[in-house]
Design brief:
This protein has 9 helices and 49 strands. The protein has a 7-stranded mixed beta sheet, with no helix packed on it. Strands 12, 18, 20, 21, 22 and 24 form a 6-stranded mixed beta sheet that branches. Strands 29-27-31-38-33-36 form a 6-stranded mixed beta sheet. The N terminus is likely disordered.
């Protein structure tokens, strides 16, 4: 796997990975100042030049929700207790103009979730989106989250409950940026497309593939709003060595993303189909596992007092107002969240005793993580297995293990897990969804996530059969990503902080920020810049208010290199939530992800590289919190992947790569050019010998003029003194 070479890792990871290739000769895809050829607006564009071509409509439809009459709510959803219907914005494929849809041809016509798409490595996939959501805002009687809406929210908070000045009216609010007020700068009927997790050309801004820092969002509008932007053709060339697994596609227009996410505007995207060598489907089939079931969790929020009869006498529930999500806890008799799986509530799956079934699990929830576990008929935990995360198969570790047993997972929004389920006894088993909302502790949840609500996700009926027992732990899979880069190629250590401000005289309220700033599409002075083929280490923090944040970056995946969960409290089914949070996002060590769930008041270290010597994509894109209501209100940042060559620097200037110090090639990360022109390490940087240190072994840190030996994060430890951080986790016996 060449196009996904990982950046340098401490010794805890290096033993798990292969020696990397050079980065000297990048084949850069982009930027495309005039747009990727074939892409762009216009309904006249047939958008059918790819190996796979999909035509998809964005529409408003009503669907009967199976088993909705069984949902437990403070008041019945319908007077007769029967199932209700759900009116929603949705994606529907056009089979006559599209390549075959996967999942037995699922095209989105039978339920709220979008069509199933697939593409193989090396293929070009074209997707044409046609917006037919005319007058949706009026149909749903929705209002934008303007100053009056934010003031109503502020006014509902008891006086004195929060510090600082408080606006006395909507007119007194200081509007910081209308772009971060959902539905104001852009309509809830406007949309676009993101292929989540794919290593492809940046595709958020117009023209597709642009590197213009001032570029605006691709915005696909209904014809009634602007006929010239009703259709858009996306063109994606998938690298030949792209990892094969479960990805997904979804809406991503800043300002309407959360509303449309709640409405189920997303779908599976499989890289590697059942017939493609190296795909999970094919590798499982070669080992006798041919049964798979979709497992897509999502949520929608609605005001249950706003139910109205349809023409067919089926009571219909519609999506609520944007701001109602923030009053949900205060008005449980009105505002409700609902948690379907696939296109219904409480689906039932069937499998035989001893049969191994593959469940590509996707957390498509917009506003909550999932504590996922399985119970038998006696409410005992039942173990299950995982072999991939976010579409990246783990492959064999140092002991040859490709599959890992779990009792529970903490899965953040947009994360995917390759699950294998096997039961050795007949009976009814339940897949449970314990709600992990952003705030860990508040008045309703004094004990943190332990107090929050568990919902039934699905039921599995296991019956006797003729299947011979095979231990799932013996199954073997290839690594989704197998190569590493040289330590020298880590060029920078960057800190990203997700923080929430609660100034009651400002709108939006609260203020969801990255590094203390709200989002601005065209703020060219506040854009993160990285360089094609270079690698970086990022520390992502959840700064305040006891709130978690799922971090997602576009275009390039990353390798998790540590997670801090000390502030996570409580247990679930007798299992530590903190330990489960860590193992879900950091085990096996060296796992690849495109989304990582940052714990409340915690942090995650990750290493990433922006392409390598085979494939690199340049252009303007983003990273953000994947609680989409946080993203819509400002917790997002522009990222410019630059293909320009680096400029060398003089003595005492910061240096990152071997080309930074003019005329010299001796390089170490996190350093400055020395008087002799060489790049040496500052105090606190990893070092292997005294000569590495500017002011002056392996797994060590520079201290004064010496290289002091100690263990890096993730290494086994017995006492705090063993660790470079001087902190040893007593439960995991690993350095923090």
């Amino acid at each position: 796997m060449k196009g996904f070479a990982t950046s340098a890792l401490p010794s805890i990871l290096s033993s798990l990975l292969l020696v990397g290739s050079t980065l000297a000769d990048s084949s850069t895809f982009g930027p495309f100042p005039n747009g990727v050829p074939g892409s762009g607006y216009g309904c006249e564009n047939k958008c059918n030049s790819g190996d796979k071509n999909y035509v998809i409509y964005a529409k408003i439809r009503t669907y009967n929700m199976v088993n909705s009459g069984q949902v437990d709510t403070p008041q019945p959803l319908s007077p007769d207790g029967n199932d209700i219907a759900y009116m929603t914005r949705t994606f529907i494929g056009k089979p006559s103009d599209s390549s075959p849809f996967c999942q037995n041809g699922y095209d989105g016509t039978t339920g709220p979730l979008g069509p199933c798409l697939s593409v193989n490595p090396g293929e070009t996939m074209n997707v044409k989106i046609i917006n037919k959501m005319d007058d949706g805002v009026d149909t749903f009687s929705q209002v934008p989250a303007d100053a009056s809406q934010f003031f109503s929210f502020i006014d509902s908070i008891p006086e004195g409950a929060l510090p600082g000045l408080r606006a006395s009216s909507a007119a007194d609010l200081n509007v910081l940026n209308e772009e971060d007020m959902p539905g104001v700068h852009v309509s809830f009927d406007d949309t676009n497309l993101h292929v989540h997790g794919l290593h492809v050309v940046p595709h958020m801004f117009y023209p597709m593939g642009t590197n213009n820092p001032d570029a605006d969002w691709i915005t696909i509008t209904p014809k009634s709003e602007n006929k010239n932007t009703q259709c858009f053709c996306y063109v994606f060339k998938v690298p030949e060595d792209h990892p094969q697994g479960t990805f997904f596609w979804h809406i991503h227009r800043h300002g309407s993303a959360a509303m449309q996410g709640w409405q189920g505007m997303f779908g599976y995207l499989f890289v590697g189909d059942e017939n493609n060598a190296g795909s999970p489907f094919k590798q499982l089939a070669n080992q006798g596992v041919t049964h798979w079931e979709p497992l897509m969790f999502w949520e929608f929020q609605a005001n249950v007092t706003n139910i109205f009869p349809s023409n067919k006498n089926v009571h219909t529930l519609a999506e609520g107002q944007y701001m109602e999500i923030f009053t949900h806890e205060n008005e449980p008799d009105k505002q409700q969240f609902f948690y379907p799986v696939n296109n219904q509530f409480f689906p039932t799956f069937n499998q035989e005793v001893n049969e191994i079934v593959y469940y590509p699990m996707l957390n498509g929830q917009t506003s909550a993580g999932i504590g996922l576990y399985i119970l038998d008929e006696n409410d005992n935990l039942v173990p299950f297995y995982k072999f991939s995360s976010d579409g990246y198969m783990y492959g064999p570790d140092g002991q040859g293990n490709s599959v890992y047993q779990q009792d529970m997972l903490i899965v953040g929004p947009s994360q995917r897990e390759g699950l294998l389920l096997q039961f050795t006894t007949p009976g009814n088993y339940r897949i449970m969804n314990h709600r992990i909302i952003p705030t860990q502790r508040n008045g309703a949840f004094p004990n943190g996530y332990s107090d929050q609500v568990t919902h039934l996700g699905a039921t599995i009926i296991v019956t006797a059969g003729a299947t011979t027992y095979v231990n799932p732990l013996t199954l073997d899979f290839t690594k989704g990503v197998s190569t590493v880069i040289d330590t020298e190629n880590i060029v920078r250590h960057t800190t990203v902080t997700f923080d929430i401000d609660i100034q009651q005289d400002n709108a939006p309220f609260a203020q969801f920020e990255v590094n203390n700033k709200l989002y601005d599409t065209s703020d060219v002075d506040d854009i993160f810049e990285v360089t094609v083929a270079k690698a970086e280490r990022w520390t992502v923090n959840s700064a305040n208010l006891d709130v978690s944040h799922p971090f997602h970056i576009h275009v390039n995946p990353f390798q998790v290199d540590g997670i801090e969960t000390d502030s996570v409290v409580g247990e679930l089914q007798g299992v530590s939530i903190a330990d489960t949070w860590e193992s879900s996002n950091y085990s096996p060590i060296g796992m690849w992800r495109d989304t990582v769930f940052v714990p409340p008041k915690g942090s995650v270290d990750l290493v990433q590289q922006y392409g390598d010597g085979v494939v690199a994509f340049a252009g303007k894109t983003v990273f953000h919190c994947h609680y989409l209501e946080h993203e819509d209100q400002g917790m997002i940042k522009n990222l410019l992947i630059d293909s320009s060559p680096p400029v060398c620097v003089a003595s005492q200037q910061k240096c990152f790569t071997s080309s930074d110090c003019c005329g010299y090639a001796d390089v170490n990360p996190l350093a400055r050019c020395s008087e002799k022109g060489k790049c040496c390490k500052n105090m606190g940087a990893p070092c292997s010998k005294d000569a590495d240190c500017c002011n002056g072994g392996k797994s060590a840190l520079c201290s004064s003029r010496k290289c002091v030996k100690c263990k890096q994060r993730g290494k086994s430890c017995k006492a705090n003194a063993d660790c470079c951080s001087k902190s040893c986790n007593t439960s995991t016996k690993r350095c923090k």
